User: Fold this.
Amino acid sequence: MSRYLDIFKKICYNTKVYKMKGQMYVEQDITSLNHEIIMKLRECGHFLHYRMGGKAGKIRILIALSEHKELLQRDLQSLLNVQSGSLSEMIIKMETDGFIEKVKSQQDGRNFVLRLTEKGHNLSEDCKRDYEKRINKLMSCFSENQLEELYNMLDEMVVHWRDVGKDWEYSSDRLTK
Assistant:
C-alpha cells in the first residue's frame, strides 16, 4: 500500500523523487508540504474516529449522562451533535441493556429525562479511565513543551479553518458531475 501512496503523492503533489549516488532524495514545494500535512491530519482523524470511540456512540452517551446526571433527549442530542433517529436507536438499546433509564421529568411531567443506572454509571467510570489511559499513551511521545506548542498550533489552525471555511459547502454531488 505504501508504494501506491508514494505514486499517488508524486502524481498529485508536485513531489520530485530522484536518486543520486544510490541515495533517494525527495524535493517538495510548499504546496506539496501542505498536502503532506493534510494527509497526516486525515490519518490522525481516521485513527481517532475508529480507535477512540467514533463520532457518536454509546460511550459518549454514557459519559455525557455521567457528567450531567440527567438530560432531556433533545439536550443530549444537541450536546453530542447526532441525528435524532440515531440517538433514539442507541437509547432504546442502552435502556434494554440496563445502562440508562427514562424517567418523568420532575420539572415538566410531560417530558422524560435520561439518566444512568448503577450498571451504566459503573461502565461510564470504566470508560473514562480507559480513555484517559489511551490519551496519555497516545501523547506520551511528546514533552510537555511540545504538547503546549502543538496545542497552540492546532488552536490557531482551528480558528483559521473555521474562519476561512465558514462559507464553504461540501457536496459529494460534485464527484458525479
User: Anything to note?
Assistant: Residues 1-51 form one domain. The chain has a mean pLDDT of 83. The CA atoms of residues 56 and 81 lie 8 Å apart.
